[in-house]
Design goal:
249 residues; alpha/beta; Rossmann fold; seven-stranded mixed β-sheet; three-stranded antiparallel β-sheet; 24% helix; transferase; methyltransferase; FkbM_Methyltransferase
Length: 249
């Protein structure tokens, strides 16, 4: 496949920390110089991880919390087509800037972007920039480096404010803050049909920070609210910590 790739443009952001590649007309961002990157790899990640047990389709509404650089957001936008919508939430302001540019370059009119944090209550929250990799940025690991203050909102308040009532897929990857989502599933006005939530017990194992031990908490609040849940057993810790759920009707 690589010999058929056409790198049409390369953009660099924040002094070489982030890159956006236009490969065969599709723009993708990365935190490293990764010329191997192309759309098929992003599609495979969605197929194997966040979309493993529910793959969005035309007309769906996807809520992507912890959208990062848009790696999954861009694939969701294609899958739901102009008939659907993707609501992409990213707390880290520096990462959010790149996400905005990716969506703009791809001309996705069905993607709605929000630079906020999903948190326990409505308040300003602090998030670290995690200089080794943006993927490690957390609301509860603020120790050194650049610290941002961003608006925090509970998930149910975010959905109410933006008039979101039906979510076909809720994808979450927010480094421990998934523990704050429980009350959203108790709201009768919110119809969340499928979930794919990245839990972070693997970070607890490595770092000893209790904030990241969330798999049992997430499993419990999903089951308590009528979801059939499942996880993978791949042998890769960060993949096997994902919890998937489907609302039983």
């Amino acid at each position: 496949m690589r010999k058929n790739l056409n790198l049409r443009s390369l953009r660099m952001y924040h002094k070489g920390r982030f890159f956006i590649y236009d490969v065969n007309g599709f723009n993708m961002a990365s935190e490293s110089f990764s010329w191997y990157l192309h759309k098929y790899l992003l599609e495979q990640d969605v197929t194997n991880i966040s979309g493993k047990f529910y793959r969005p389709c035309a007309g769906d509404v996807v809520l992507d919390i912890g959208a990062g650089l848009g790696e999954e957001t861009c694939i969701y936008a294609d899958l739901v087509s102009p008939k659907g919508a993707v609501y992409a939430v990213e707390a880290n302001p520096m990462v959010y800037e790149v996400l905005q540019e990716v969506i703009k370059l791809n001309n996705f009119t069905n993607v709605h972007l929000f630079n906020i944090a999903i948190s326990e209550q409505q308040e300003l929250v602090r998030i670290d920039d995690a200089p080794d990799t943006y993927l490690a940025s957390s609301l509860n690991n603020v120790k050194k480096g650049t610290i941002y203050e961003v608006q925090g909102l509970p998930l149910h308040e975010f959905c109410s404010f933006y008039n979101i009532h039906q979510i076909d897929l809720l994808k979450v990857n927010i480094e421990g803050a998934e523990r704050y989502l429980a009350t959203a599933f108790e709201r009768p006005e919110l119809d969340i049909r499928h979930v794919a939530i990245s839990c972070h017990n693997f970070r607890f194992t490595k770092e000893g920070n209790e904030f990241f031990r969330t798999k049992a908490l997430v499993s419990d609040y999903l089951k308590r609210n009528g979801y059939a849940i499942i996880s993978q057993c791949t042998g890769t810790d960060y993949i096997d910590d994902w919890v998937y759920g489907t609302k039983m009707r």
